[in-house]
Amino acid sequence: MVWIHGGFLQFGNGNEPGISPTAKLAKKMNMVFVSMNYRLYTLGFMALDILTDDILTRFQRKLWLMGSVMCPPVGQRKHQKLWWRS
């Protein structure tokens, strides 16, 4: 099983108690459990080499970073409606 945690690129990790699969489940189901973590939130992508290359213009960099900034914060009613409809 491969587990990729949710969190809208803002929070969470591959070992959330009560949410992530456990070693007990892996043993019971006779499977291998693989979890991955990834960079979170707007500044989590700043270390990417592609963002420092001259290929990208300032406008493109702003669009890259504004993706998660423009989304309503988690927990707002609009965000939940949008998520469940998609």
From TrEMBL:
Write one Pfam family the protein is assigned to.
COesterase
What are the entry keywords? Answer: Glycoprotein, Hydrolase, Serine esterase
Q: Taxonomically, which superkingdom?
A: Eukaryota
In alphabetical order, the GO MF annotations are: carboxylic ester hydrolase activity
Q: Which InterPro entries match?
A: AB_hydrolase_fold, CarbesteraseB
Carboxylesterase type B domain residues: 1-48
| Keyword Membrane found | no
Q: Could you say which protein family the record assigns here?
A: Belongs to the type-B carboxylesterase/lipase family.
What protein am I looking at? Carboxylesterase type B domain-containing protein
Which organism is the protein's source? Caerostris extrusa
